[in-house]
Amino acid sequence: MPTPQQAEPGIRIGLTELIEMRHRVREIQLFSRPGQRSPLVGLHHSKLRGRGVDFDQVRVYQAGDDVRNIDWRVTARTQEPHTKLFHEERERPIFILVEQSQRLFFSSGLVFKSVLAAQAAALFGWAALGHNDRIGGLVFGDNEHYEIKPRRSKQSLLQLLNRMAKVNQSLHTEAISQPDSLGLALRRAREVLRPGSLAIIICDERALGPSVEQHLTLLSRHCDLLLLPISDPLDHALPAAGLLRFAQRGAQLELDTLDAGLRQHYHQQAQARIERWELLAQKLRVLLMPLSTQSEMIEQLREYLNAQRPGKTK
Hints:
Elements (H helix, E strand, L loop, with lengths): L14 H6 L21 H4 L7 E8 L11 H7 L3 E7 L4 E7 L13 H18 L3 E7 L4 E7 L2 H16 L11 H12 L5 E7 L5 H11 L3 E8 L1 H4 L6 E6 L2 E6 L3 H25 L2 E2 L2 E2 L4 H12 L6
Parallel strand pairs: 3-4, 3-6, 6-7, 7-10, 7-11
Antiparallel strand pairs: 1-2, 4-5, 8-9
C-alpha cells in the first residue's frame, strides 16, 4: 500500500496533487468575479434562504421596490418616499462532502472514481477560497468520517485536502463498503450547517437511495446544494466480453456478457439511476453536475457551464 508520500497517478492521489489543483482554477470560472458572471453565480448572489444582508444606503423609492424596506423616518423628514437598500454578504460557509470509499476505488476510464472525487473537491475548494468564502467539509468513507469546520483560511482547506489524500491512499478492494455512508454524512451536515450555507456533495452515483433522498430534501430547505455524482462507463454499460468472473472476500460472481438481455437490463438500471438524480435535482431545484471517469474533469465542467449560459441549450 502506498505511503502518504507516494501516489499512483490515476489510481491514488496525494496531497501535492490536490494542492496543485489551485492552478487549474484559472482554467474555468466556477464562481462570479467583478464584471463577469458565471452560470453558478446563483450559488453566491441569488436570494438565498437565511443569507445575511448588510445595510447599504437609502434612496428615493422607485416603482418595483419592496414596500417593506421603506425608511419611514427619512420619508417623514423629506416628505418623499425613501427605501433602504441592502447588499448580501459575499462570504458564506461552503461545506464539501466528498466520498472516499471502497466502491469508488475503481475505474475503466482515465482515473479512479475516488481520484476524480478528490480532484473535484479540491478544485471547488480552491475556487471557493479564491471567492473569499469560508471552507470546510467532511470526508466520508466506509468506516470513518472526518469533519473540518468552515473557516476562511487556507489552513482549513489544506486540512481537508490532507485528510482526503490520507483516506484516498488507504483505499483497497477488500474493504467492507457501508451502503449508507452518504446518508450518515448528510445527517451530520444537517446538524452543523447553518441556513444559507452551500453544500457541495461529491459521491458515487450509486449512492442515491431513499434515505439519501430524504436527507438531501431536508438539507435543501435551509441550504443550497450542488450535486456531483461520480460514475464510470462500466457503471452504465457492460461490454460484450464473454464470461466474466468476479471475486471479493470469498464471494464469486459470473456474468455472461454475451447475453443481450443481461446487458440491456444492466443498462436500464443505470438509466434509472441517472433519471433518479435528475428528477431529484429538478424537485429540489438544485444544480446537478455529473462527472465521469471517461473524460477530463475540467472539460466536463466547462461543457456543463457553457450549456447553462444564456442562449445555450443543454
